[in-house]
Amino acid sequence: MTSELLSRAEIATRYSLFDQIETKEHEQLVICSDPKVGLRAIIAIHNTTLGPALGGTRMWAYKSEQEAIRDVLRFSRGMTYKAAVAGLNLGGGKAVIIGNPKTDKGEALFRSFGRYVEGLAGRYITMEDVGITVRDMEYVRMETKYVTGLSRALGGTGYPASVTALGVYVGMKACAKKVFGTDSLKGRKVALQGAGAVGLSLAEMLKKEGAAIYLSDIFAERVNRVAYDVGAEVVHPDHIYDVEADVFSPCAVGGILNATTIPRLKCAIVAGSANNPFDDDVAHGDMLNKRGILYAPDYVINAGGLINVANELEGHNRDFANEQASRIFDTMTAILDLADAEKIPTYEASTRLAERRLSQIGHIKHLYATHSNITGRLGEVGRTRT
Question: I need a labelling partner for 358 at 20 to 30 A (CA). Which of 45, 176, 186, 263 fits?
Fold first, then answer.
């Protein structure tokens, strides 16, 4: 690990593509190009020890190819640890499509991407993520069966926002019990960043328990609508870090906790659904820890969505997925106990739990080849093609 802090541009210049892949022990990086339909995509497979790599596809107008590579490598690694900690038989993968999700979408683009997914023969299973809708995934499904998180009409379970929110909610309660001596959130102040589908579901759960909600979002119409529904106080997006609250809950984009924003936090707990909230996992994770703020690792408490699609693959229902997501309370408690026992930050404790499971299962299977139950189920989900 380098002792100097490098900018993103310096990292992109200094490290080769293979250096970036090997640093985090990724298995495979696939570059997908189809100029005729405007497809420029990257698929990253991090680890398939536990099973096929599963992770969403996001579409984003990245400023550079290196920025896109950085994201897909970070997110795919996070999916490995998320599945391992959640006790799922899945590996970690991710895909990014470079483009503006509001102007660059098209049936041909997504079907072309689907052909690349199909070419991986089940090593990578995709689903929707930021900038992607269920409808977009239906186009991908026309070319490959390795898609999950589809609409109910196609035999899927639909968007899993409520299951994701449930995991964040119970994880937050586990942290509250550690910090305040009770898992009750009644009367607790929660600064909630993001009023999207997950943020809305989480806000509804917090409202039901009697928490005071301070809500921000970059989309004024959306934040005002959600705030009205849950009785939240609207906060300008630039000021959400300054709110005096018990919990800061990032439920929007990643990379928002950094050397500038962390010193502004006035909370006891950070617990939210946003993937990779730290701009630098170690440096900024340590910065938060030194401030005495308890951090609920993102991939631990936001695993509800992954749990839901894993159930879709296995043919289980939403009720069972909710039951599994509720167990995130116990997982978070185990991480807190390990962090205390070994005097390490929570992000390091969760990593150790994940790596312990990967090591224990690693002697059974290493590289994923095929799995009849999962691939068979994928063949049933969304069989209808248009």
Answer: 176
